[in-house]
Write a structure and sequence with these properties.
This protein has 474 residues and is of the alpha+beta class. It has ten helices and six strands.
Length: 474
């Protein structure tokens, strides 16, 4: 059997080239709505009172934790950024989104494949003569290029670009949260350690008072009730220390998790008590409109709207025909020895069109689905903006009022210390009963413990404000 040669398309080559040129001209259009940057109305100022220490945004917002002037805090945050597993997960999602974009971009170009085959066949001659056995050797290339006339592929690339941006903003959001969680865990640790020191100091003073009461009782100058009350107060204060020690150790474990280490990795480094990092003198709050440009969750939500808008175009493109240029070229022969001779070449080239005229409303439903998803993305964006504004206002009012609370507690501690001193002196000289000493010591311990908690809250409120402002990423 003689080798077969494929005939070319009936359309002349120059006519095909003209068609391709015309199609390339119109590929600048893309169906579906175009995305435009959002103009979201926000208040000109914050709702509540702004601390006098609030300043305008500056370059230090990206590394706000350095403003606490605590080398250990700086080291922990930087180690968390370098090794936190949640952050590594978001970086992997960025690579995933970038690869998905590459897949979408690949749809804009032609696809070329190469292959070879061997086929042996037998054909009967209907009993007139003996059948014929033949061989066919073939090697060549096939190419296909779907022309993106109506922009469906380009809308897909646009959506992939927006998805990539959303993945990047997701990582930035994790950076913001990670820095804040690390700082809060560290501040809580130092707060628990200070509470332990205060509990031990008060325990020591109460034990001294209990011993004094016991001596007075043995001298017959007071009743057993005073010694019993003194011992009860000592026991109550001592009972607080194990709870605080447990909380301090758990804070260390939390910090270990944030830097991707085992729970006990930081015990030796952080077990020694230290002071609570003081709040910085100023916080760059700025104005509400700047929040939209700075918070990663808002930026990511806007990227989600962009992606959803582009996908409406992807769905709309299915309403229109798809044009494809395809071709093949190669060599084929019945004889292996002459397989690769140039005389045995073949080629074919030609355009094709495919149009789904009727698919029971699937395409229209898909368009409506895409529009609904875009609407949901916009609603989510609005919710994110409102939640961000509320978060900043909450942090601002909490910061203002907690500083007032701290100042009042400082005054209470000073007054209670004086009361303990006076009550102890009067009791020693028999001028008052032990109940006044007992009440004064209880009030002092309660106010000192509350003052430490307030100092911790002042610092954590500042961290919350930095987080609400979107600080912690470049």
């Amino acid at each position: 059997m003689r080798g077969r040669v494929h005939a070319g398309s009936s359309m002349p080559v120059h006519a095909c080239l003209v068609l391709v040129f015309c199609l390339m001209i119109v590929t600048g259009c893309a169906v579906g709505p175009d995305y435009h940057s959002l103009e979201t109305p926000v208040p000109d100022t914050w709702a509540g009172p702004v601390p006098e220490t609030v300043s305008q945004p500056g370059p230090d917002l990206a590394r706000w934790w350095t403003a606490f002037d605590d080398p250990v805090l700086v080291s922990l945050v930087e180690r968390a950024i370098a090794s936190n597993l949640d952050l590594k997960l978001t970086e992997s999602r960025i690579r995933q989104a970038r690869a998905a974009r590459g897949v979408s971009v690949a749809g804009l170009g032609p696809a070329v494949s190469a292959g070879s085959s061997y086929q042996r066949s037998y054909s009967s001659q209907g009993g007139i003569s003996e059948g014929v056995t033949s061989d066919l050797y073939q090697i060549g290339f096939d190419a296909a290029w779907e022309l993106d006339i109506f922009g469906g592929v380009r809308r897909g690339v646009e959506a992939a670009d927006a998805d990539l941006l959303a993945a990047v903003e997701g990582r930035n959001g994790v950076l913001v949260t990670l820095a804040a969680e690390t700082a809060i865990s560290y501040i809580n640790l130092r707060g628990f350690q200070q509470q332990i020191l205060i509990a031990r100091n008060n325990l020591s003073a109460q034990q001294h008072s209990a011993e004094l009461t016991r001596k007075i009782y043995l001298a017959g100058l007071t009743s057993a009730l005073d010694t019993t009350n003194a011992d009860a107060q000592v026991a109550n204060t001592a009972a607080q220390i194990p709870v605080l020690e447990s909380s301090a150790r758990q804070a260390i474990y939390s910090l270990g998790l944030l830097i991707a280490r085992e729970p006990g990795a930081l015990i030796s480094e952080l077990s020694a008590p230290s002071s609570i990092p003081g709040a910085p003198p100023s916080v760059p709050a700025g104005i509400p409109s700047e929040l939209l440009r700075r918070r990663p969750d808002i930026r990511g939500a806007e990227a989600g709207i962009h992606a959803a808008t582009a996908r409406i175009g992807v769905a709309t493109a299915d309403l229109f025909p798809k044009f494809t240029l395809s071709g093949s070229a190669g060599l084929q022969s019945n004889d292996f020895n002459s397989w690769l001779n140039w005389a045995n070449r073949f080629w074919s080239f030609g355009p094709s069109a495919n149009w789904q005229i009727f698919n029971t409303g699937k395409t229209l439903s898909n368009i409506e689905l895409s529009k609904a998803l875009q609407e949901q993305s916009f609603i989510s964006y609005q919710q994110t903006v409102l939640a961000a504004l509320q978060e900043v206002d909450n942090a601002l009012i909490a910061s203002v009022k907690e500083r007032e609370h701290f100042q009042a507690l400082s005054n209470a501690v000073a007054a209670n210390r004086k009361a303990v001193f006076l009550a102890t002196q009067l009791y020693t000289h028999g001028q008052t009963d032990f109940l006044n000493v007992l009440l004064a010591q209880r009030s002092l311990y309660a106010s000192e413990d509350a003052l430490v908690q307030s100092a911790r809250t002042v610092s954590t409120n500042i961290v919350a404000l930095y987080k609400a402002l979107g600080g912690g990423w470049e």
